[in-house]
Design brief:
alpha+beta, Rossmann fold, D-amino Acid Aminotransferase, Chain A, domain 1, Dna Ligase, domain 1, 5-stranded antiparallel sheet, 4-stranded parallel sheet, 9 helices, 27% strand, globular
């Protein structure tokens, strides 16, 4: 098979692992910087060009699209879909998961466990908004934030009001969520491939920090998840329409709750913590499902 990996940096661990796994299994792999791709949008024969070359003959495309380039990256991926190239994750599913508010609403509609979440526009609604999510302490998140950036823990009502009003004054879109104290600064990253959780790790925040992101000093360990957690992760992935994703869960007093569904999960932390060859599992999934015209939306999303 001829596989394209859409990645801004071929030296990233996740990109290298996917390339190595695909090459070892006998596939031809090309890493394409998504921002260097440009498109001929025509009803007769849609094309993607890269560094002066017309990209043809690809059987599958693996998107590793960073949050900062979601708009252009999904446009390029949609063009591949229109050319009948099989996408590991479809453009519409990536867009769905990147819109945090939309993602939470879709998960809520399917009855999947979530932290109590509020969303408002006007500063004069702040008091009721805080009450709605159970009062302080609470978590305030920028809708556009990634990797823990723009996430604030407000420990008192006064602090919450100040932070919310400051964000609103900057015309920033924010979510206000209940603080799951019983999680103890830990979350669970479930790596879903197809309809299975193939690996899971517990990420523990460092002392004095409530965000468990590994690049913020958090630590990762292998963990055994419950059947309910496994089911929640798979249902969340299915609701987003993602074949491969990382589902971040918290253990709350009312069962597992989904914090986020990540359409381009990093492989380094979870491969190191679990000692599993996840890159090869992903390539196996592509081998099994990559057929021309297999895309559900065919670029219509």
């Amino acid at each position: 098979m001829k596989i394209a990996v859409l990645s801004r940096n071929p030296k990233l661990y996740s990109t290298q692992r996917l390339v190595d796994a695909a090459t070892q299994r006998g596939h031809e792999v090309h890493v394409l910087d998504v921002l260097r791709c440009y498109m001929n949008i025509t009803s007769l024969k849609p094309e993607v060009h890269y560094k002066g070359e017309n990209l043809t003959g690809f059987d599958a495309v693996i998107p590793r699209i960073g949050a900062s380039v979601t708009f252009y990256g999904t446009a390029v991926l949609r063009q591949f879909e229109m050319m009948n190239v099989y996408p590991l994750n479809e453009s519409v599913a990536i867009s769905r998961s990147r819109d945090k508010l939309r993602a939470l609403q879709l998960l809520s509609r399917k009855g999947i466990g979530l932290p109590v979440t509020g969303f408002a526009h006007r500063p004069d609604d702040v008091e009721d908004l805080i009450k709605m999510v159970g009062g302080a302490p609470l978590v305030i998140k920028l809708l556009e934030g990634t990797q823990g950036i723009g996430v604030v823990l407000a420990e008192t009502t006064g602090a919450a009001e100040s932070v919310i009003e400051a964000f609103m004054g900057m015309k920033a879109n924010i979510l206000v969520q209940e603080f799951i104290k019983e999680a103890g600064g830990a979350d669970i990253r479930c790596l879903v491939v197809g309809d299975k959780v193939v690996a899971a790790m517990k990420r523990q925040s460092k002392e004095g920090e409530f965000r468990s992101n590994l690049h913020r000093g958090g630590t990762a360990n292998l963990i055994r998840i419950t059947p309910q957690e496994r089911s929640t992760a798979v249902r969340a992935a299915r609701t987003m329409g993602l074949n491969v994703c990382g589902v971040d869960l918290l253990r709350s007093n009312h069962g597992p709750v989904v914090m986020e569904v990540n359409s381009s999960p990093g492989l380094e932390g979870i491969e190191m913590a679990t000692n599993k060859d996840i890159a090869s599992m992903i390539i196996e999934f592509v081998e099994k499902h990559a057929k021309a015209g297999k895309t559900k939306t065919r670029g219509r999303g």
